[in-house]
Description:
Blueprint: E1 2-3, E2 6-10, E3 12-15, H1 27-35, H2 38-58, E4 65-70, H3 72-76, H4 80-87, E5 98-103, H5 112-123, E6 127-133, H6 141-144, E7 150-153, H7 155-161, H8 165-180, E8 184-187, H9 193-198, E9 205-207
Parallel strand pairs: 3-4, 4-5, 5-6, 6-7, 7-8, 8-9
Antiparallel strand pairs: 1-2, 1-9
Helix pairs in contact: 4-5, 7-8
Amino acid sequence: MFHSIDTSKVNIWEILLRWNRTEYGGPGEFMPLVATKPHLHYSLTMMILNKVIDYAVSIEDTLPNISINVSNSDLMMVDFFDDVMIATEIYPELRSKIIFEVVEYSEMLSKKHVKDNILNLKKNGFRFAIDDFGCGYSNLQLLTEKHFDFIKIDKTIIGMCEQDAVAYETLQFILKLSESINAGLVIEGVETARQLALVPEDPNVFIQGFLLSRPVRLTSTLSPRTKEK
């Protein structure tokens, strides 16, 4: 993800798994299976977090902000806060760089463990983003809670903005909304120069899409946790 006023420098890395074992099917088969097994999804989430920490410990360079997707079922886990704090204990400075992305879900914050996990993690420097905002039913009440530091707009909106004035006005509305709650706005799916031209150059706006960067491998091997920070 790049800042809209300076696309020459990466601001946020979104960490994702890449499915390689195609002989066993693709993500279309794998992800629905994981979705029905919350503890399996949770294990994957913690594996990704630990790999990021291992990578951060193993390099000398300063990392940008790092975004990690978590499911609503992850946030419902009673031990999520404790597990994240223990995992990052070796590198506590990383906590202020990690952004947990959550797919919007209207009933999510009604669950006690979810709200407690979010509030406790935010108190310790972690940040949260609503992913795919504007896809399907968008619950604005989630934003009024002010638990989220970023709003990520579903990529269909920027795609529609090229030909649809209403979609462009929707984009402007969400930008004003994000400013009112002091949240960054990430516009996903920017794939053409024309789409990039529609993105406002604003201190509050970030860009993600193939035009500026296609997915790249973080590292082929990860060093063990031997380096002290």
